[in-house]
Amino acid sequence: METTFSTHDLMLTLALTFIALAIAGCTALAIFWPLSKVHLRDRHPNWKADLGKGNQWTWFLFGRYAQLKDNNLNGLARPAQVALWTIITGLGGAWVLWLLSEYFFK
């Protein structure tokens, strides 16, 4: 019995793989985000002054925590930053592949 997969099926499979990547990023963020926040609360009580007009997510996303020059914080916040970028990449890639599968490869 022969089965054939269309390009549409392949695109949806890859889109689901990107969703799995985003879920892995959420898992890593659930671990490292609270650890980073507790470290900031305990060692840098005035860290919110460094935020400027941004919010906490962009502060971590673009690595502005490195301005505090705390190696221990860098060890906790870098995985949180990578997890945020992984979530963005995973969801963005899944969205692009879904669009391709729906409108170009049907």
Describe this structure in words.
With 106 residues, the chain is mainly alpha-helical. Helix content is 72%, strand content 0%. The protein has helices at 7-43, 56-61, 71-103. The longest helix is centred in the first third of the chain and has 37 residues, at 7-43. The protein is elongated, with a radius of gyration of 19 Å.
Q: What is the total tally of β strands?
A: 0
Query: How confident overall, as mean pLDDT?
Result: 87
For the biggest sheet, the summary is: none
Straight-line distance between termini: 24 Å
Order of helices and strands: HHH
Question: What's the short story on this structure?
Answer:
This protein has helices at residues 7-43, 56-61, 71-103. It has three helices and no strands.
Descriptive keywords:
106 residues; mainly alpha; 3 helices; 0% strand
